[in-house]
Amino acid sequence: MTTKITLPARKPRQSRQPRRPRRDFRTEVHRAMRSWQLYVLLLPALASVLVFKYWPMYGAQIAFRNYNPADGFAGSPWVGLEHFERFVTSFQFERLIANTLTLNALGLLIAFPVPIILALIVNQLQSERFKKFTQTVLYSPSFISVVVVVGMIYLLFSPRSGIVNNAITVLGGDPIFFMGSAEWFRPLYIGSDIWQNAGFSMIVYLAALTAIDPSLHEAARVDGANKWQRIRHIDIPGILPVITILFILAIGNLFNLGFEKVLLMQTDLNLPTSEVIQTYVYQAGLKQAQFSYSAAIGLFNSLINMVLLLTFNWVAKRAGQSTLW
After folding, report:
1. Angle, to 10 degrees, between the axis of helix 236-252 and the axis of helix 291-318?
2. Distance from the CA of 94 to the CA of which of 64, 138, 162, 218 falls in 20 to 30 A?
């Protein structure tokens, strides 16, 4: 009687992936020289960034000096954090921070969702001709200059000849001096900003919506989903990475405002709510020639924005959302 011996099956060998050859400096140089035309096209943009973004950083040192144009950047006496302490301990610090943060936070909460809503509505339009007409009407105000927009605000809300006050008078009310009232500055600023910029921001979300696979909507229609359900479960998740990226960028500019528009809408009567960091820097730096003090305020503002950007980018990464890096 013979016994049959079964040997254990051999495990298949795992194929080793070939190691990639290391690229040395010469290889990279030869690779770049083969595509030198692309780098030549890149030079103007790179030069623009270096000249207008990085070279001005050399002048940021005047925030730590008592700058005197006759002595130059390096010759002016070093004062350290004196200008920063002066700004933080000034009586205007709390009002400037509160006005800037309130105006930007309200604008972010109210104005940020508007382009998303407009994009979702326009994307649902069936007629292509009406869809193009609606897009044109919505983003046309973005081509109007800020000066013209502020002039329109002054004309529309004039206490004597403005259409708004005429309508209030016809309805039995008293005319309101909108541009001279501190409580009306924020609604006018945010409302006009939505009217001017929401349509242009809508284009980004429309582009993201066109990248969604149409078969998802077809399958949802077969399953009996209505428009609201398709928007909720297909469109919004599809553009959520774009929303996250733009929201992080908006948070990074939380302490930055449209300086020209605020300055043009600013009057002596609405200063309690219209005086923000950017206009204060303009007043202190250019009108009062306090160059070091205004540079310190601007640098302080930029540092706050950078901290906010890094913080919310880290929060988005921890939440598993799309991030800048």
Report:
1. 150
2. 64
d(CA 264, CA 267) in angstroms, rounded, equals 8
Q: How many CA atoms lie within 13 A of 51 on its CB side?
A: 6
Give the global pTM: 0.80
Contact at 8 Å (CB) between 198 and 111? Answer: yes
d(CA 194, CA 201) in angstroms, rounded, equals 10
- Residues contacting 183, CB < 8 A, separation 6+: 273
Q: How far apart are CA 187 and CA 184, in angstroms?
A: 6
Question: Which residues, 6+ apart, have CB-to-CB distance to 138 below 8 Å?
Answer: 118, 122, 198, 199, 202
Tokens of 57: 């950083």
Report yes or no: 115 and 204 within 8 Å, Cβ to Cβ: yes
Q: Are 60 and 299 in contact (CB under 8 A)?
A: yes
Give the residue ranges of DSSP H helices in 7-92.
Answer: 25-34, 36-49, 72-75, 82-88
